[in-house]
Amino acid sequence: MILGDIINLTVSSLRARRLRSALTALGIGIGIAAVVLLTSIGEGVQRYVLSEFTQFGTHLLMVTPGKTKTAGISGAVLGTVKPLTIEDGESLRSIEHVLGVVPVMQGNAEVEFGRRGRRTTVIGASHDAPVIWKLKVAVGRFLPADDPGAARAFVVLGSKVKKELFGASNPLGSRVRVGGESFRIIGVMESKGQFLGFDLDDAVYIPTSRALETFNREGLMEVDVLYAEHADVERLQASIKERLTARHGREDFTIVTQEQMLDVLGYVLEVLTFAVAALGSISLLVGGIGIMTIMIIAVNERTSEVGLLRALGAKRLQVLVLFLGEAVTLSGLGGMLGLTAGFGIAQILKLLVPALPVQMTWPFVLFSLALAILIGVVAGIMPARRAAALDPVEALRAE
Asked: 238 falls in which pLDDT band (50, 70, 90)?
């Protein structure tokens, strides 16, 4: 029996049992489609989150008040956490390789112009914010480098706030009320879009000291630091820790680099992608069991056929290849069906839900196809070996 005969027998066997073959391939197809679709969504979410965080640059670190640690006794008896101040942030400017510092205070307040008002996000920042956060001014200028302790009442509007309050008019020089206080508009930002659901265009920027007064706060939310690309990050962290510890008397703050945040996010998203792929693999397992069951039934139904083939001179290896080929063909067809369905559903989701990040990755696609074929081999090997081991005489006697 030559290879052509094996192929003809395989195809004719699958055609003779069209419904059974289609249902078996469908089981594998559903599993492959689930794996492709879920991993595509997981990969898309991972790329989306990473792109969101890296749009502000990759050489940033953040200092926040309070030390993240585990202690044996409560620290409340020994002392309290000192607030992180503007002066703390300004003291970091003199550290080697530090390119810019933004003391940050954020809140929500009413921004009013004439009879129009809009409740929006108010961000207290310094003149370094456009450089550190990669922002661009569309009209006018950003906040000046005033004395942090005596900053003037200037405000820079986000593009959406400007549109809502002024329409097509030029707002420069006009005065708005932010949280009940009067501020003069000196600039309008270019549209930046959203950051993890937060609309960066629906915000206004005022000096940090003014923001502390507006929200009646003593300390900052955080201090963002931009450092040189060639800087030794560990040494820089140590320098910042030494400087702030000297000012506070103890280490009551936390320093986190953007790389650390991205590493944590990357790990979480990789686990998420693996989890959704595992869920899809359950369908593949069910499909593999289906192939094995169908092939066992096929061997029982075709015992006399195997006996005839063996009597005509077919070798055990050829019988093994015959039944194994049927299983691999079923899984391969199911795999191609699943890839087509998964890709099609992913494209439909992109059209229906543009905000949903879906990213097809060829390594996953090729892996899914290889996995489908492997399932066919594993599921078909036992029934195929059983068929090859049949005694020709006993097989011919079977009904």
From this structure: very high
Residue 373 lies in a domain: yes
What is the distance, to the nearest Å, from the Cα of residue 367 to the centroid of all Cα atoms in its chain?
A: 20
Q: Residue 220: is its pLDDT beyond 70?
A: yes
Residues 243 and 277 in one domain: no
Residue 60 covered by a domain? no
Residue 355 has pLDDT above 70, yes or no: no
Are 118 and 194 within one domain? yes
Closest CA to 80 of 67, 64, 70: 67
- The predicted pLDDT at position 363 comes to 73
Within a domain: 58 = no
Averaged confidence pLDDT in the chain: 79
Of 130, 181, 179, 180, the C-alpha closest to 158 is: 130
Indicate if 19 and 101 belong to the same structural domain: no
Position 2 scores a pLDDT of 59
Give the Cα-Cα-Cα angle 231, 270, 356 (nearest 5 degrees): 105
Give the pLDDT confidence of 133-189 residue by residue, as tens digits.
888 999 999 999 877 667 889 999 999 999 999 988 999 999 999 988 999 999 999
Does 86 share its domain with 31? no
Q: Which domain holds residue 295?
A: 3-52+263-397
Task: Specify if 69 maps to a domain.
Answer: no
Q: What is the pTM of this model?
A: 0.63
